[in-house]
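quick one, 186 residues, struct below
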Amino acid sequence: MPLSVPSGLPPRVPPAPRFGLFLGQVGQTWETQLARVLLAEELGFDHVWLVDHLVDTDGDPDKPCLEAWTLLAALAARTERVRLGVLVSSNTFRHPALLLKQAVTVDQVSRGRLTLGVGTGWHEPEHRYYGIPFPPAAERADRLEEAVAVLDALMTRERTTFGGRFYHLEDAPFVPKPVQRPRIPS
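---
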């Protein structure tokens, strides 16, 4: 039986499907990565994703691996339409205020084409290689919960004071704000 639409309301049109590519940067040069992302944009893909790891987590840790946020900023400057993101940023690698400063920079450079994803961090060997603390899973989850609150506050308030178990901010200004308001989508 067909659905009827109450008078005066337009019919609901489902959103068009979107297609993206995970183009992780492990084993890629800058030139190759740029060519891959430009081709994805030319072919009409809607979004492109990098990986936030310091080494290859699926194989040889000696393979080259460009840093995700720096690479994302460079790609944002060279692309026009495709949305960009990192699947996902490890909360253990950066204080949330630093991560957000990097993310807002990419959002500004891309003119609002960033999607922000943050996770707990999971690959213990890369933490060990570089002397980055790797807390137990429950603590990483608690840290992520606080980090998300910090990220949201910094994006939406003029100044932020936050007193958590892991993160502390005192009357912290945060400018510029993201292009995408009130916050960068996740």
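The mean pLDDT is 95.
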